[in-house]
């Protein structure tokens, strides 16, 4: 690229990134990429069902292992973060909620909702698994 | 005449080949349409997963053989893989500078998401047609 003498804005590292702006923005991307990678697990699980009982059993024991459960918990958290923050983005696309106060409170709502829903889903899932 | 460095708009020679791909609006709309579709679909899917978590093969199979579940799952898979490759494309285009790697990675993720989409839908169909 040609060298320009245009003014540069201060570099990213100069700013103190507010949690509900910069940090949440890049987290949306990171969770998006993580969820895209997570579709490999979804694919594996569905193909194991399609292949038959033996394949399904080994997939279940892999996903039900400690590492499997940790990954699935991370997947749930990433999913609900991306889902709720995605709704926030859709409101922005409609031109709503742009002022700093609204953006900050919607950001806090997204963080709270993602955390609470993830924990609730896992409490119910583990309770049902234990009861079944 | 203003010098090249003060120019806000690049000369034609510089943008030739790097300009509009004529798909920007389509990409934008598809990303948001699939996002809107995925909100209810993902909420349904997580609640379904909670009910079949740790279940045996017969239970999961019976769940997939319900027409409503098969339809919603295929809809979810189509939306997920489309949404994922659209999102991955934006991330790759933002961070990968080298034109060859960029095009290769975008093409690779697109092909991969189509292959996984087809494979998972086929798995769902295979289980579905086994039902009575």
Descriptive labels:
heterodimer; A: 132 residues; mainly alpha; 3 helical TM bundles of succinate and fumarate reductases; 79% helix; B: 3 helical TM bundles of succinate and fumarate reductases; 5 helices
Would you write up a description of this structure?
- The complex is a heterodimer of chains A (132) and B (132).
- Chain A contains four helices and no strands.
- Chain A is mostly helical.
- Chain A starts with 18 loop residues before the first helix and ends with a helix.
- Chain A has a single domain, classed as 3 helical TM bundles of succinate and fumarate reductases (Up-down Bundle), CATH 1.20.1300.10.
- Chain B is mostly helical and 132 residues long.
- Chain B has a single domain, classed as 3 helical TM bundles of succinate and fumarate reductases, CATH 1.20.1300.10.
- Helix content of chain B is 77%, strand content 0%.
- Chain B has five helices and no strands.
- Chain B has helices at residues 12-15, 24-52, 57-65, 67-95, 99-129.
- The mean pLDDT of chain B is 88.
- The interface between A and B is large, with 37 and 38 residues.
Number of helices of chain A: 4
Low-confidence stretches of chain B: none
Give the averaged pLDDT of chain A, no decimals.
89
CA radius of gyration of chain A:
20 Å
Could you name the CATH topology of chain B? 3 helical TM bundles of succinate and fumarate reductases
How would you summarize this macromolecular structure in one to three sentences?
The complex is a heterodimer of chains A (132) and B (132). Chain A is mainly α and 132 residues long.
Structural topology:
The complex is a heterodimer of chains A (132) and B (132).
Chain A: H1 19-51, H2 53-63, H3 66-93, H4 100-131
Chain B: H1 12-15, H2 24-52, H3 57-65, H4 67-95, H5 99-129
Helix pairs in contact in B: 2-4, 4-5
